[in-house]
């Protein structure tokens, strides 16, 4: 995650705003609950529990991975009377009560009961309280400090700037059974992976220049699902949709770990959006942030008057980059909270993977800290041993319970074994972002093409360490913000050359081994940096250069899905072979991608200079007949269309070794794929 703006810290009074109360029937329909005074303020909170002794034991040991079924608010029936059960962890509190519109926000009307086992869990049943009620916990905590906190386990929150939780039932009658049955194949490491990264608010807005203007989940579904389907992306990755108070954090400063943001609608509407993607054969990945949380007064920070969720030692507990706080991974209750928070989205929302943000900052005690600002671990090293253990348990749990999904690490260091199994002393992720590839590739393409001959080693270096991990190649949101410029303006040359260079880069990206990730707007060559306050500059598609750039990315997405050689062996050494790195001065590079069947092999030839190269010779030991299946210089991609290969001549030059000479024409700043 980039160093996004600070999380806003604010205290909001909710007394003036009373949202429509609703109740949820068994058929999942919603209707108005007309009786505004259905809660009897004289009724005491019943001392009732959904939690067993085993639940508490596992919670404290850090091994309870479905806390969302027991903690938070739940609509249940006790002694033939419906109401809401509440459970919250506040170990340093001397009093916890539930307050809301239903009691005019009085602090101590509905006090919860502390459990006898001194677990720090407060719970109780409020008869007659229904769904759709806004509420907070009034906590009298450490040294008598009194705070109003949102529910850490809430499934629905008020739309910001209001900050109360809402009683809700997330039941949904799913209609994606076909996808769920077959997604193991779709999400496998041997499957094609082209991921479209999206920020839901700014992908498209009703009013393109109004940051308060949001499409609903239903409206987003109507527009985004067919777009991703048409483009041919296999997956979509959503920047954090978990509830967060400040738009400028892009969702990475979250307060609701068990709730999709109410900016766009209800949890069920978000479920329907996921369902719509699944029914079009598209997987859904969610960004998830267990690395830090903001200091907003209604959130997790100082939850019961002292450091409950965060480390008390600010050398470990404060994040200097993001002005936020770091989870105490040593505490079993926090570990159970976080792993439950990841499992929740896989279990209740059918998502196909989670991309874990800022893993590097979790692993290193000295991350963004200088000497004296951190303390070594018990062995004298800089690794956060508790965070490492948490990450391993997280991945083991997810792959045990959901073997047909993937976990993906945003990890920017050379930490070994990020995507290796835990039994092989790895962290256990399925994939890792290949940040080195991104930096080296962008540095290479920013060069004047004449100078690329001197940077070839940098360009080809990725394959020297590629097999260390299961890599995803990211061109993400972080590369088009904070003055880094949009992708198209990173490219050198005049307008035509900029687009040709970008098509060439994407051709290289989609034919390089590994999964691919492309941020929204990159596919059509956006000319502005991404701005979360507005929407993508869709008006650019009226111009051929941008619409045809989009056509190029669309063709590459479909090429990836249609050519097994581009994905079947993408994470093993058999899948890639350099064919020609000897023409450094001409800056022409050739490699082969290999599938499980030799007949599926493809050759990729990249001409990194503006010079057209006719009758270029490529030598290969297999295949007498080749055809061109992709050319980045095609007219439909805003290329010249003048340099292509309708008939490819091959000549046997060494019968003993079965070496053939392939004669082809290479377009200026162009990539050609042969099969």
Could you explain how this protein is built, in words?
The protein contains 15 helices and 31 strands. An 8-stranded parallel β-barrel has the order 12-13-16-19-20-21-22-23, surrounded by 4 helices. By secondary structure, the chain is of the alpha/beta class. The two termini are 39 Å apart.
Distance between the termini: 39 Å
Strand order within the widest beta sheet: 12-13-16-19-20-21-22-23
The percent of residues in helical segments reads: 10-25%
* Tally of individual helices: 15
- Largest sheet composition: 8 strands, parallel, barrel
CATH C-level category of the largest domain: Alpha Beta
* CATH architecture annotation name of the largest domain: Alpha-Beta Barrel
Tell me the CATH superfamily of the largest domain. Glycosidases
Number of domains in the coordinates? Answer: 3
Class computed from helices, strands and strand pairing? alpha/beta
How many individual β-strands? 31
- How would you state the average pLDDT, rounded? 92
Rg computed from alpha carbons, rounded to a whole number of angstroms? 27 Å
- Report the portion of residues in β strands: 15-25%
Low-pLDDT regions: 2-37
């Amino acid at each position: 995650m980039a160093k996004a703006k600070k999380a806003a810290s604010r205290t909001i009074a909710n007394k003036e705003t009373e949202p429509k109360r609703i109740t949820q029937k068994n058929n999942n329909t919603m209707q108005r609950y007309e009786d505004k005074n259905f809660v009897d303020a004289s009724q005491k909170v019943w001392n009732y529990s959904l939690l067993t002794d085993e639940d508490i034991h596992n919670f404290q040991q850090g091994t309870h991975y479905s806390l969302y079924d027991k903690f938070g608010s739940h609509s249940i029936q006790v002694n033939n009377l419906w109401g809401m059960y509440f459970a919250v962890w506040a170990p340093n509190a001397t009093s916890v009560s539930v307050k809301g519109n239903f009691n005019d926000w009085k602090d101590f009307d509905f006090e919860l009961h502390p459990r006898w086992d001194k677990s720090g869990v407060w719970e109780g049943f409020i008869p007659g309280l229904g769904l759709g009620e806004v509420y907070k916990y009034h906590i009298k905590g450490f040294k008598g400090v009194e705070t109003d906190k949102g529910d850490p386990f809430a499934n629905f929150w008020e739309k910001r700037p209001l900050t109360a939780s809402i009683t809700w039932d997330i039941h949904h009658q799913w209609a994606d059974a076909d996808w769920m049955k077959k997604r193991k194949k779709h999400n496998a490491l041997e499957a094609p992976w082209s991921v479209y990264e999206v920020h839901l608010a700014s992908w498209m807005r009703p009013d393109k220049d109004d940051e308060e203007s949001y499409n609903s989940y239903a409206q987003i579904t109507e527009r985004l699902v067919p777009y991703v389907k048409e483009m041919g992306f296999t997956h979509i990755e959503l920047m954090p949709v978990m509830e967060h108070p400040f738009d400028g954090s892009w969702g990475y400063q979250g307060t609701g770990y068990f709730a999709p943001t109410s900016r766009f609608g209800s949890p069920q509407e978000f479920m329907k959006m996921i369902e719509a993607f699944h029914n079009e054969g598209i997987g859904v990945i969610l960004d998830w942030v267990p690395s830090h949380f903001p200091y907003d007064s209604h959130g997790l920070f100082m939850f019961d008057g002292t450091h409950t969720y965060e480390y008390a030692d600010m050398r470990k507990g404060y994040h200097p980059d993001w002005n936020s706080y770091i989870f105490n991974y040593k505490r079993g209750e926090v570990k159970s909270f976080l792993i439950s928070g990841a499992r929740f989205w896989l279990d209740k929302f059918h998502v196909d993977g989670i991309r874990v943000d800022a893993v590097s900052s979790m692993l290193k005690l000295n991350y963004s800290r200088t000497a004296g600002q951190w303390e070594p671990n018990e062995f004298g090293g800089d690794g956060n041993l508790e965070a490492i253990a948490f990450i391993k348990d997280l991945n083991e749990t997810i792959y045990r319970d959901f073997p047909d999904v993937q976990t993906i690490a945003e990890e920017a260091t050379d930490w070994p074994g990020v995507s290796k199994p835990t039994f092989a002393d790895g962290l256990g992720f399925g994939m890792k972002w290949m940040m080195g590839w991104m930096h080296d590739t962008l540095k290479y393409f920013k060069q004047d093409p004449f100078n690329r001959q001197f940077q070839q080693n940098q360009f080809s270096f990725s394959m020297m360490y590629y097999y260390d991990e299961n890599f995803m190649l990211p061109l993400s949101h972080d590369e088009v913000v904070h003055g880094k410029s949009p992708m198209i303006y990173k490219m050198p040359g005049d307008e035509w050359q900029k687009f040709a260079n970008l098509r060439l880069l994407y051709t290289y990206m989609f034919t390089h081994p590994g999964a691919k990730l492309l941020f929204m707007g990159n596919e059509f060559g956006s000319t502005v940096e991404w701005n979360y306050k507005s929407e993508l500059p869709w008006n650019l598609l009226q111009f051929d250069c941008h619409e045809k750039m989009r056509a190029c990315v669309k063709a590459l997405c479909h090429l990836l899905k249609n050519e097994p050689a581009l994905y079947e062996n993408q994470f093993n050494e058999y899948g890639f072979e350099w064919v020609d790195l000897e023409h450094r001065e001409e800056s022409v590079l050739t490699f082969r991608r290999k599938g499980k069947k030799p007949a599926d092999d493809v050759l990729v030839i990249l001409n990194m200079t503006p010079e057209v190269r006719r009758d270029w010779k490529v030598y290969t030991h297999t295949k007498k007949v080749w055809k061109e299946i992709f050319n980045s210089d095609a007219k439909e991609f805003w290329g010249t269309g003048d340099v292509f290969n309708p008939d490819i001549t091959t000549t046997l030059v060494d019968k003993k070794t079965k070496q053939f000479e392939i004669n082809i024409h290479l377009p200026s700043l162009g990539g050609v794929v042969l099969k």
